[in-house]
Write a structure and sequence with these properties.
Number of strands: 23
Bound molecules: 1-hydroxynaphthalene-2-carboxylic acid
Radius of gyration: 22 Å
CATH superfamily: Jelly Rolls
Strand content: 25-35%
Structural class: alpha+beta
Helix content: 10-25%
Distance between the termini: 26 Å
Length: 345
């Protein structure tokens, strides 16, 4: 394993002398931080079944009032990182959040970027930067760094969504903090309406929007239709996938994490190559067997799993008669910006 010597090979008093002045030798640790050929991830392939989460989340609704919790969330923790680390992967945090009818999760903003993927329930909304975004199953709603956001619920049933944040990375950078705010006044302009047509952007008096985040809500019916159209149009394509992008720039919707939706054709098996970033898979509709290295998870609707980086993943649609739709989040934007992105076949 370690052919560069162990710390125990050195005289103890020499090691102690170094430590007193905050010095340590590199060579005993060199293979650990630079393993041969590929990283040794802490991230473990892990699945979180919605059937396990939901009753525990509803119990949290009974035990802890929203006024006390601010955000009523159960964190989907990766045991490879330790459950108290609140990490699904090196850069991704996942949580399932519950909002009950009439509840209000107060306005705040923070440095980590977040998105919400709505899992079930109607009638809730989140207000982001003054835009009131209705929440329906499968919708993706952004709350990018620094934007005010709060959640409300005018409906009659519990609403649950999956939060994905780049919190572990921003926290690691010692750049994570929040500010509480007031209830936001609602602005009339809604990015999801302004950018509803693909390839068409609003240009009042020939001016494009200069907003960093012009579109905050990506309705599921639009994403689903886009996937079905793409699948119809491109019978030659194995991988029917869309990326959620900033419609003004075409870049990833957020700076650190990437968000995608994938359609598996009836009965399809799709092999994704090993790529450097970790990836999260969440079934919006249908059911999929997800094979990550030697582990297999059977995902049904609202189930979630994650894969470590540098690991091939095979997805299989368990339904022979209908497509399966999967939401994915990964660390690609981060890896690409840092120049460490890799695909290995
Ligand atoms: C947060 O602000 C929300 O606004 C959800 O709903 C989960 C996890 C960690 C830090 C901030 C929210 C969060 C969070």
């Amino acid at each position: 394993m370690n052919d560069l010597g162990r710390i125990e090979d050195l005289p103890a008093d020499y090691v102690e002398e170094m430590r007193k002045v905050n010095l340590v030798p590199l060579w005993p640790s060199l293979r650990g931080v630079l393993p041969p050929l590929k990283p040794k991830p802490q991230t473990r392939a892990t699945m979180w079944a919605y059937a396990d989460i939901k009753p525990l989340l509803l119990k949290a609704g009974e035990l802890t009032p929203i006024e006390k919790a601010e955000r009523r969330v159960l964190v989907l923790a990766n045991p490879g990182h330790g459950l108290d680390k609140m990490q699904a992967s090196p850069a991704m945090y996942l949580g399932m959040q519950l909002l009950l009818p009439g509840e209000w999760a107060p306005s705040h903003r923070h440095t980590p970027n977040a998105v919400r993927m709505i899992v079930e329930g109607e009638g809730a909304y989140t207000t982001v930067d003054g835009e009131k975004c209705p929440m329906s199953r499968g919708d993706l709603i952004l709350t990018p760094t620094g934007l005010w956001h709060e959640h409300g619920h005018d409906g009659t049933d519990a609403v649950v969504w999956l939060d994905v944040l780049d919190l572990p990375l921003v926290y690691y950078m010692e750049a994570s903090y929040h500010i509480n705010g007031e209830r936001q006044p609602i602005k009339p302009d809604r990015g999801d309406r302004a950018y509803a047509g693909g390839g068409m952007v609003p240009t009042p008096i020939f001016e494009r929007s200069h907003k960093a985040y012009p579109m905050l809500r990506y309705p599921w019916d639009e994403a689903r239709s886009a996937l079905l159209r793409l699948g119809q149009d491109r019978q030659d394509l194995d991988c029917i996938q869309i990326t959620y992008v900033n419609p003004e720039t075409g870049n990833d919707a957020e700076n650190i994490l990437g968000f995608y939706a994938l359609m598996l054709r009836p009965g399809q098996t799709l092999r994704l190559p090993a790529r450097s970033p970790s990836c999260v898979f969440h079934v919006i509709e249908g059911g999929a067997d997800v094979k990550i290295d030697e582990q297999s998870f059977a995902l049904t609707e609202a189930d979630t799993c994650c894969s470590p980086g540098y690991t091939p993943v095979t997805l299989h649609n368990r339904h022979a008669d209908k497509p399966t739709f999967v939401f994915m989040a990964d660390e690609s934007p981060l890896h690409r910006k840092l120049g460490v992105y890799e695909v290995r076949n």
